[in-house]
C-alpha cells in the first residue's frame, strides 16, 4: 500500500481477511486503503468491521475518527478520538 501498489495491497488484505475473518488489523488496513483512494463508505465499513471484531482496536478507532473529520462529521470524529484518548490515559506504557 505504501509503495502505491493499490491492487496488490487490496488482494493481500482480502486474503488476510479470508484467512482469519476475526483478526482486526487487515480490516483496518483495508479501511485505510479505501480512505486513501476516496472510497469513504467502504472505508467506514471496514473500520467498523475492525471494531466489531476487536472493540479495542485503537488504530481502527483513530483512522475512523480521521475519516469522519475528512467528511466533516466533527461530532463522530470527536467521540472516537475521546475513546482513543481515554484508553491511552489508562495505559501506563503510553503515558
CATH architecture: Alpha Horseshoe
How does the major sheet shape up? none
Element order, helices and strands? HHHHH
Report the CATH topology name: Serine Threonine Protein Phosphatase 5, Tetratricopeptide repeat
3D shape: globular
Q: Any idea of the CATH class?
A: Mainly Alpha
Portion of residues within helices: over 70%
Task: Output the number of helix runs.
Answer: 5
Uncertain segments are: none
What tags apply to this protein structure?
95 residues, single chain
Write up what this structure looks like.
The N and C termini lie far apart (30 Å). The chain has helices at residues 6-19, 24-36, 40-53, 58-70, 74-90. Helix 3 (40-53) packs antiparallel against helix 4 and helix 4 (58-70) runs antiparallel to helix 5. The longest helix is centred in the last third of the chain and has 17 residues, at 74-90. The mean pLDDT is 94. It has 95 residues and is mainly α. The chain has a single domain (6-90), classed as Tetratricopeptide repeat domain (Serine Threonine Protein Phosphatase 5, Tetratricopeptide repeat, Alpha Horseshoe). It is built from 5 helices and no strands. The radius of gyration is 14 Å and the shape is globular.
Amino acid at each position: 500500500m505504501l509503495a502505491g501498489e493499490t491492487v496488490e495491497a487490496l488482494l493481500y488484505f482480502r486474503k488476510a481477511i479470508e484467512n482469519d475473518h476475526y483478526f482486526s488489523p487487515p480490516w483496518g488496513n483495508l479501511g485505510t486503503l479505501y480512505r486513501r483512494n476516496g472510497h469513504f463508505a467502504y472505508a467506514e465499513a471496514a473500520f467498523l468491521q475492525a471494531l466489531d471484531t476487536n472493540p479495542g482496536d485503537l488504530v481502527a478507532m483513530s483512522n475512523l475518527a480521521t475519516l469522519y473529520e475528512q467528511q466533516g462529521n466533527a461530532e463522530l470524529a470527536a467521540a472516537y478520538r475521546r475513546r482513543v484518548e481515554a484508553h491511552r490515559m489508562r495505559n501506563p506504557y503510553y503515558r
